[in-house]
Protein 1
Amino acid sequence: MTGTGIIAYVKIPKINTTLPIDHGTDDTILQVAVGHIPGTSLPVGSKGIHAVISGHRGLLSAKLFTDIDRLVDGDTFMI
């Protein structure tokens, strides 16, 4: 599935990261953004939504989720 634009952002304060969330998870999207897994709820709305997102870490060309290993239980993120 190819991207059709940014639908939301994921913000992770502890690692000072804000990333765009795009529709789909093809290689083009995941090189520059986080992808929304097709078939799951859209990451918009209210509590109780079960959206699934996917993203890379450790890419040479983009930081993305590289520092996610610094998170511990209780750290928060926002969409």
Protein 2
Amino acid sequence: MRLKLAPWDPNPAKPLWLSDPHSADGARPSALAVALRPFGYLLYAAFFWLILLIVIGLAVGFVVFAAVATRPDGPLSDVAWDGAVSGAVEGFGRVGAVLVWLVVAVLASMCFGAAMLVYLPLSTAAAALVASLAFARSLQHRYREEKITGTSWARPGDTLGFRWPGPDGRGLAITIPVRRTPYSIAVVKLVHAGYFVKRWTFLAGWAIGVSYVATLVIVWHDVPPTVTVVAAVVGVVGLGLSVPAFVRARREYVDPRSR
């Protein structure tokens, strides 16, 4: 049975636009809300911009750490490439070691790519952009008589990390702009890209993750030149595959009503 949540559209196949372009629930904001909401939106935006910087910093930091920590004087100097390879061969045999490393590479590329380099940055950036847009609009006189943002709910199980419905039977609550403009359309599509798991977005993230894991291999201190060359080729191929995947992913979030 499909969940009906008037006045919001719960269909995740298109952006969740509010039905009333002037107010999220039919009520005008109070004078106190109008006076205080710039501060709330500013804090909201600052928080998510900070989280986004942390996410980007972690992605860059892992590469720097792998390059520095594996040097002879680094904290991971004892984690030698040859030792890791020989240990896997001794434990699983040659064929087993290859399979183990392939599984590790696939899982690592999925975690780093789809999770850390795509979905987490997209969802965080989307929240930061929504809050920044709301803050800018809260300072403009023409928005004093209307609510700037509203809440829309996805169906349970349709969004990343929210499999089960909440106490009220709803899925993930998403804050989106009330007034529809070309910029807010782009922002809401970004919200969907960050929260709704789509095939091509996931595959694009996976391809980027392959390049990211290849980069970690390249910067590892004692990796043989042959392995470095292979990793570089794999990394370039991963980046190349991510481009058409992202192009297809962008088409998955086109609002049918904007055509």
Protein 3
Amino acid sequence: MLTNKELEKVNSWCAMNDPANVLRVRGEEPVFFRSGFSGIPNPVVSGGAVTGDGLQDALDKDKAFQGFMPPAGENPTMDQYDNLLAIFRSNPGTGCTTVMDMARIAAGFNPLNPDLKDNEKAFDDYVGRIMSAPFFFLNDSSRTEYHRGEKSWNLAVNDIVNLYEGIEKNSKDQIRKSIINMTQAAASRKNTRQTKSLFAQSTLNLENEIQVYIYSSNISLIENKGRKSTSRQTDISIVKARLTFYKNLWPSYAQIVMNRHVKMIDAWVKDNTTQPGANLVDLTCFKPTA
């Protein structure tokens, strides 16, 4: 059981990161980010992944949850609400994606377009909100810097891609394409630095413990041509954080969260993964009909 002080922390964090309140203050309509924005280039990799032995059970519970959802625009009856809450309490994986989504929306971070104005600052805010949330314990965080002189961009691509450990193959392939495009731009625009927020990835591992891994990376390339020689320089920054979601405490604060926001696992993955034409399901909150 949570103490009154712990419950106050949960209530305070949820109120501060309530999507409805945040968007209202900004004067915005609820917009849930997806790839495929008209006119916005999307060359940067964003990944959301959920893995582990507990994944299928969490997905099954999400499906059961959807079975008790009222029609769009309606609040659930008391019976529906009780069933929704019972399922939500038993599903800490979806609890974790919900809390992370609240932090993302509150920060204004769009994981599908890291090059958007102020998005790097928003990403830092997003990570900060997660780290300050009473739902997580920060295990470790690190920033790794790579500074490389390159003999050839063609030879450098594989070496650069291999620096990204723990990234799925599909994401690595997209990272490779983005780096190739950058090397081509660097070669064609001598003495001009090419800089990109290359990728942002959030991974949840649902085992006996729920582990959250957050990665982000910036890369810059430049090719300087002198009178007698050409030099090529790569600068890479990779930030990683690993957190544990307080799984055992989830039943105690699930209702506080559900009354403000719900983000099921499949929707969370789609909303955090570069994927043209993604159809997302977002549930703002659930409160019973009196």
